[in-house]
Design goal:
about 350 residues, alpha+beta, Methane Monooxygenase Hydroxylase, Chain G, domain 1
Length: about 350
Amino acid sequence: MAEKDNIRKIQFTGKSSYIVSLPKEWVRDQGIKQGDQVIVSRQGSSMLEIKPVNFGKSATQETATFLISSKDDKDTITRKLIALYFLHYKTINIKPKSGMISPKQRVTIRNAVKKMLMGAEITADSTNEITIQVLINLVELSIDGAFKRMLHLSKSMQNDALLALKENNKELAQEVINSDDDVDRFSFYIIRQLTIAIENAHMLEEMGFSKARDCLGYRIVVKNIERLADHAVALSQDVLDYDSLVPEKVIDKIQEMSDFTLDVIDNTCLALFKNDYNEAEESIAKSHDISKYEKRVFDSLKGSKNEKISFRVRRMVENIRRISEYASDIGEVVLNMNIEKMVHRN
């Protein structure tokens, strides 16, 4: 039985129309008022769906202002900016508590907007106030679209890191490290969109999610792809830290191990896009084969008396093995999101 406050009496008006009142709280939450239009659509034989005509416009909050002091460092300012970006404000104003925004703080804000906040632009920049506007439209870049770009970029970073390692190419290694900012931008953008979806049932459907809890699973998947990029950065940093070459036969086995992990990542992400429980199961089982590739790397290292090379290789293997674990984690998320399809109801 529904709560008493949610029960509405149907009334007859005119010659052929029935009307029912809407809960005041719902109207207020949707940001609509008397005279605004709603869409009424039939769902099955006994249900109706009601939603505002322009529901997408109410999903984004308008303006936020935060004050910074002369003591606020780079990390503090950046964290505040990212937090407000996640809360889907369209305009963010930054003002000094007293005095003015220092040159270093202005550089920090500009770098954060450029490198981390997708769709954000600085529209006003002075010592007294900086204004940031998030201009990207929700339909211009879907969550799936952003995730696919993020995945492609992270995999490319991993492949480039291995190439830089093979050729001892420090310039390419630095490019891989620089690309991590782009992966972070996609990650932050997706989190922002997921926050909007969780808070707005209509946007949840618009973004392709059937349940709000699926947003949590998607967030875990995005974090794992972000970590894939982090491990590519770690491999590239090794190239910058050392001048000596790792033996080619060892690099070849490391390459095989890396190719295997990226293949498993591809399989689990494909299962995510297809909502395929069985494919996710198969990918999880496949990820356990990483130990075979790990053994081949260490077998190729036998006979080497160079402790520095051995240390570097162990660290590389650890980075790549973690990627396989992330693939398994993604598979687990896909299982959780689709388990109900496998349940037989009496």
